[in-house]
Design brief:
alpha+beta; 2 helices; 12% strand
């Protein structure tokens, strides 16, 4: 990249989810969230971060040996996509079940 984007106001840009897919090297320095362990590695369960809305893909042994390869990452991608869909359904249900205040 000749002109990389170095800053982005996620809320202003309408970004509510981040899926981190690794490339040739790891650089999490720009990601200012509480999603890493004491060694600087992503804190996650099968790619679901400890930080809401932050996800990881392509990590070594994320769920299986092939997780860090293009041909093997689809298992993890599907798992994370299913998780996000479930979370969205839950939030939609939760919002719909919330009582509407009088006068609103």
């Amino acid at each position: 990249m000749t002109d990389p984007l170095r800053q982005l106001d996620l809320a202003r840009a309408g970004v509510s989810t981040i899926i981190w897919a690794t490339g040739f090297s790891l650089d999490y320095g720009w990601l200012k969230v509480d999603a890493f362990d004491d060694s600087g590695r992503p804190a996650h369960q099968r790619g679901i971060s400890t930080e809401p809305g932050v996800y990881f893909l392509g990590l070594p042994w994320q769920s299986r040996r092939g997780s860090s390869f293009i041909w093997g990452g689809w298992h993890d991608a599907r798992f994370i996509a299913d998780h996000i869909a479930t979370q969205r359904k839950y939030l939609a249900y939760h919002d719909a079940a919330r009582p509407v205040p009088e006068g609103a």
